Amino acid sequence: MKNILRKTQVLAFSTLLIVTSCKKLDINESPNNPGVESATVETLFPSAVISTVSRTGGDLSIIGGIWSQFWTQNNNSSQFRTVDSYDVQATSNFINGPYSELFAGALTDYQLGITKSVAAQDWRYNLMNTVMKAYTYQVLVDLFDKVPYTEALKAGGNLQPKFDDGYTIYTSLIAEINAALAKDYKTNPLTAAQIKTDFVFGKKGTSADVMASWEKFANTLKLKMYLRMVNAKPNEAQAGILKLYQDGAKFLDEDAEVNIFTDVPNKSNPFYEYNFRRLNTPDNLKASTTFTSWLNLHNDPRAEVYFGAPNPVPSINQGDYLGGAEHPEYNDAVNVVVNATDAVPIISKAESYFMQAESRARYFGGAGAKELYDLGLDAAFAKVGLTNPAIYPYPASTNIEVNIEAIIVQKWASLFGSHALEAFFEQNRTGYPKTTTLYSTATGYVPGQLVYTPNGVTGAGNFPRRFVYPDFEKSRNSNTPAQVPIYTKVWWGK
Amino acid sequence: MKKLLQSLFMLMLFAVSANAQERTITGTVTAQDDKLPIPGVSIKVLGTTLGTSTDPNGKYSLKVPSTAKSIEFSSIGFTTLTREIGTLTVINVALSSDSKQLGEVVVTALGVSREKKTLGYSSTQVGSDEINRGAPTNAVAGLQGKVAGVDISTTSGSPGGSSKVILRGFSSVGGNNQPLYVIDGVPINNSRPGGTSAPGTVGDVSENYDFGNGANDINPNDIETISILKGAAASSLYGSRASSGVILITTKKGKAGALKIDLSSAASFTNVAIVPSIQDQYGQGWSKQNWLAENGSWGPKLDGMTRPWGSIVNGDQEMKPFVAIKDNFRDAFDTGQEYNNSLALSGGNETSTFHLSYGNIYSNGILPGANDVYKRNNLSLSGSTKYKGLTVSASANYVGKNTRAVQTGQAVSGIGSSFYEDLLQIPVDYPFTNFKDYNNKFYNVDNYFSPFSQNPYYSIYENGSRFKSDRFYGNVDVKYKATDWLSFQFQQGADLTNNASKFWNAKNNPAIGSWAGGGNDEGYTRQESVGNVIEGSERYFEYDSKLNALFNKKIGTDFDINALIGVNYNDRGYRSLYTGVENLAIPGFYQINNSANDPTSTSAETERRLFGAYASATLGYKNYAFLTLNARNDWSSTLPANNRSFFYPGANLAVVLSDALDLSSAKISFLKVRAAVGQTGSDTDPYRIFNTLSRTSAALGFGNIIFPIAGVPGYSVSDVLNNPDLRPEISTETEFGGEIRFFNNRLGLDVSYYNRVTKDQIIPVVTAPSSGVTSRVVNFGKVRNRGVEIALTGTPVKNENFTWDIGYTFTRNRNVVLELPDGLDKLILNSAYDAQFVARVGQPLGVLEAPIPKYDPQGRIVVGSNGFPLLDDNNGSYGTSQRDFIMGLTNSFKFKEFTLGFTLDYRKGGVFYSGTADLLNFVGNDIKTLYNDRRTFIIPNSVVQVTNPGGGVTYVENTTPITEGNVNALYYTNNGKAVAYQNRILDKTFLKVRDITLSYSLPKSVAQKIRADKATLTVYGRNLITWLPKENRTIDPEVSNFGNDLTSEFGEFRTGPSVRNVGLSLNLTF
């Protein structure tokens, strides 16, 4: 009997323990990370902007600049050899890294920021997030041709989002921008603390100025997207641009850029942080003969700024990283100059003017194109601390292509550094600078023409025109389209 | 024969005259081996219920009726002996030891000792002598090659480095595959320091520094036995943490009797075991030229001519013959020393006992100077006391560690450098030992010959780490025997660890214009090392409470029941804080404030609780058939509230056929069959239920941008999607086996077959980034492990002077991934460059995949216009990390006072990725880079793809050679990527002589001169010989700096070599 009593006691004690431990087990909320419900637009927006520019101004610009032939792989090192031989595979970090960061790092935060600001009827952050989301998506579309859009960013809701074609995404983004512009983002001013969270225009100081700049940025981004359509959708491109002008849209007359970087580890310009601070050698990217020969031809003073050396800048022929034995002078080639505190441009002032100049050349019979082209050149030189030496006169030809070539080549020369990805896109769209079948060592080579790299794996003349679909998506999402070669143009390509 | 006749005669004589008188027999029972008295030997008068046991001095006194004919002496661990009484009044016996004795008692789950024959699953117990034979500093190292079904590796040659123990294969894809370590019934912390910070953040140092895992802290000399519970049937009572098995450690306790002093002292030399085999044909340079600044051996053919070498300093350059340096790698290291001393005092009386021990280890590894040092102090006190039915015992242990380690793996560029990485890049004709003088004008920061690397010895002496740890663990155990069949037990355990660590890299920058500062023949400037300092602290805690009721009752004559019911509460977690700063202001001063930069910190804390209730009952029938049923229910804090309770049952059956039937005619002394089926449930890591934000850190490919920036904080949506619907993981295991022994236990065989399926594993699996997250936590998939374990034991020779014992183990585990999450064809477990360690359906867990060349339909290699092989669009398989089988062989020869023993450990099959091979290939030091004598050649059987105007594709013979000057590019992962991994993924097979020991037990007469009861002198060697297959001439496949779990099976990334020890130990018992 005594034993039965004991057993009962044990049982009772056990039950008591179970009951008391139920509450004791409710300790599974992380003390290390706040719950997602506590997110604020003020902490999401700067995060997303940094995610975007860390890639567009970092590794994507490094790759864009190799493929636009500003710089090339040093023959004494090897970091970017696969890029310089057009051998960037689906599994490469050059592709998976940006894709992953732009979607899961940037777009997720913009999307949550939009959801939160719509819920709070905060149309200021709604516009800011929408424009940056559109810019980020535009980069993805221009790199990959097709990406998920309508079914994307639903986290657990859809793990296998379908891919949308680039044109659909473009028109949807423009519609999103228009919707955000249609809201009242002016009445409620941003507080000083909120202005500080805007790394793009926050330095303007007042809420009214900041929001006015965002409006210009939104219009200029639309202009850029319409211009991208000139080959694939010429009518829609023209209609869209004319509509912008009819509506009296104001375009950027300042740089839309992130200019908050300091020479401190983990807080520097992403190109600098990646290529100079964190790689085992800062000597991976050397001046490319393609670009330096062009600078030298025009005795362009930007050589000193871009490469820290006067014309002719010691350089390496594009992609000739195995040619060191025959070219001992390669050992004298200079590095690209990118500083820890350099801004990452999103749309530069010069770029805005060059785009307006192109629009004028295309759709307004050239009226005003020259002035805008010159403004673009002024801005491009001013950006690097120089005065426009007026060495590049606008051709004002009756052949629109001649004018466009002049505009785009000047745009190309202005996109050095953390803006180089845009040069790659614009070459794909317009074909400028022209490509050549000659190598830069050949007699008859025209300085500045893009050469096919001697170690290219795609076959002569097959320049890279896109990124292949990333393994991160392909291996996890069965809706990923079939792989196409890296030299297949994207939907808007020429 | 004469003796026998005599006895018979005597017996007959006294049988007649005997009457019912009683008399007293006295005597001493000693051990045959060491002649020491054995206390507690049970002595029974056969045919009666009379009996007694020996006192602490091995003496006994027994009243026997005159009808008694013989008495039986039995004790655990000794062969039972029966002696005729005859007319004797004094019977002294010497018992011989027998580890295979029938009544062997083993420690099972929850610390319950049970007769081994009642267990329905395979169980292995290893004793102190076996563990400590080679004076190891960590307990499990002494088990290598000795236990079937167990894969034990030493993952680091650095002193105090980690060990990896895998029981019956890997089953958890992302979770913990390490067994649970339990000391005297209480689970302990087995984590590796440095793993608490998120990858890429300050404090994520586990790949670069190995300070050992928690279980290595135990003093092996304190261990009485280690029981290995491999299957679910054996371990399920321990709950979710036991799903990868349990290592049950029972520590030495005091015994009633005079004060006993055990002294063990060992000293050994440590040497590097395996170093890479290096080519000896080509010297320093690149592209067949003698570029002096190059960090490799792609230069001209070695010709023995005396030539200048290295940097030019003020016009001076050193001269030496242009030849490969013999034993260059081996000479890069020093001879280390290891001292392992332990002193124990124990004793007690009938009611109370105590055991006090102190252990000290000082180990200075194979790197020069005191830069890889492991110091450990263990202090342990345990005691118990009895009062009536109440027994209270307690143990308290302190472990103090002080470790210095050098960085392995990849250094953070621009901050510092890493010894092994730099060492591998020195040309084959450059004498490594010269560079030890790292302040020499030719080898210093300014003038080190290559700006692409740094002097390895600089990093040894100027960079470093210091790790200090204070740990306390112990338990209080209260047992109350309520009746003769019921007792209660309460046990409270605690394990608390405080770690403090510091890591530093020196600031240095070659002077502008110096050799490394751009004044070399390539005009190349070495990247500045800005230096850094990181300070970290980690605090681990674990509290474990248990309350058990134990039943033990005979039911009728045929049945007995042995049962327990209990509850368990476990609370554990850690807190960590790391702070670091880069770019030091004052060189050589390592303090967080010594920088213009702001320090950055990471902090983390986790806590988890688990409540469990369990019951187990063994029903015995006639002491030869035993059925055990057990069940446990857990409630875990880490699972969603509605799924946090999970139940898992098990059953096992053992039938001792040799007791049920008379098999003696078949020379079978023991035959048992067993069967078990069981489940174990498992929870997950904390904080995987609710979605979170994380401090924004934008990854750049290399480097990060981390908030706050410009005074603005950033929090973004976490890239990992948590899951509010998680369920527990469940493993189901069936096991069949049997034991058979012949010829009076001289030959024994133990065979097990098991099949374990683990399903609903919880890990973050990668997700298409377009969904907005990069991974999500899910329950998924199934992994199956099936295997066979065989243990063969034998005593081929046994006589008075000579005994030969042999033990052989064979393990074969077949692992297969049965399911993966929806939409995934593979799961990446680890990677290095383009090599991936993946899980794929239908293949073993852990397949190495890497780039392969593209082939045309005829199977010829397709090359690009530059003559280098093109890459296939997808990676190809290079094999799996799974071994074909593991075999162990132990031998022990005992001749009089001498014992010679050795253990062989053979592990066949599997592949691993070597980051050491990667770098050796890149710089042209690897022996495999001699292919075709480095001459210009066309890739054999290669074609180029031609696209016809119509769009059709044809392949024509390739005529573009790879020129002599560019052969090097074939060995690195750019142009040569398609073929380079063939040289980086290596065969994992090895054969090691784990230990060789020769012991001499001093004769008692000699021992007593120093007042010792027992004195043994042992010469030992650990890991003396390692044999590797010819495909791997690079590194010991056991080493890894990817932790000590599944990810480490991938291989290594420029980690240190393994080591061997030769030493001498003295064991004294007073």
Could you characterize the architecture of this molecule?
The complex is a heterodimer of chains A (494) and B (1070). The model of chain A has no long low-confidence stretch (mean pLDDT 94). Chain A contains 17 helices and eight strands. The relative contact order of chain A is 0.14. Chain A has helices spanning 2-24, 41-67, 81-84, 93-119, 123-144, 166-181, 192-196, 207-228, 234-246, 270-278, 289-297, 302-307, 349-363, 369-383, 400-414, 420-430, 471-474; strands at residues 71-73, 147-148, 163-164, 256-258, 285-287, 344-347, 435-436, 450-451. In chain A, helix 2 (41-67) packs antiparallel against helix 4. In chain A, the strands form four sheets. Chain A has a two-stranded antiparallel sheet with strand order 1-5. Chain A has 494 residues and is mostly helical. Chain B is 6% helix and 47% strand. With 1070 residues, chain B is mainly beta. In chain B, the strands form twelve sheets. Chain B has a 22-stranded antiparallel barrel. In chain B, strands 10-15-16-13-14 form a five-stranded mixed sheet. At the A-B interface, helix 1, helix 2, helix 4, strand 2 and helix 10 of A face strand 27, strand 28, strand 33, strand 34 and strand 35 of B.
